[in-house]
Amino acid sequence: MTSELIYICAGSGLVGLAFYRLATCRDMLLRVLSLNVLAVGIAILFLASARNAGMTDAVPQAFILTGIVVLVAVTAALLALAEQIDSQRDE
Q1: What are the Cα distances from residue 87, in Å, to 13, 31, 91?
Q2: CATH number, domain 2-90
Q3: Average pLDDT along the chain, 91 residues, taken 10 residues at a time
Q4: Contact 46, 64 (CB under 8 A)
Q5: Shortest CA distance to 41 belongs to which of 66, 69, 7?
Q6: CA distances from 6 to 10, 32, 58 (A)
Q7: Could you tell me the CA-to-CA distances from 52 to 44, 49, 61, 76, 77 in Å, in that order?
């Protein structure tokens, strides 16, 4: 029970930090990093809620692994878009 509580607190803290940073930051790079932290926090919460009676289920783990792969691709696209916006802003 205590390990799930630790993961729930850690995931909730990451989600809260990410939302705070998204609301207060104007830098595109920090916003992309905040979205990554948000995704990791949600993944931790999802895995903590998927544990039941000490046993783990493979389906949520597969969802999280797929989410990590998608997160890497989305991060690359967002960084390229942020660089494009930044270069147009300088002109």
Answers
A1: 34, 17, 7
A2: 1.10.287
A3: 84 95 90 93 88 71 89 93 85 68
A4: yes
A5: 7
A6: 6, 26, 21
A7: 15, 8, 13, 35, 36
Q: Kindly report the pTM of this predicted structure.
A: 0.82
- What distance in Å separates the CA atoms of residue 61 and residue 47, rounded to the nearest whole number? 7
> What's the token pair of residue 55?
């046993």
What angle is formed at CA 66 by the lines to CA 63 and CA 71, rounded to 5 degrees? 120
CA–CA gap between residue 36 and residue 25 (Å, rounded): 15
Q: Are 25 and 31 in contact (CB under 8 A)?
A: yes
Work out the end-to-end distance of the chain between its first and last CA atoms, rounded to an integer number of angstroms: 56
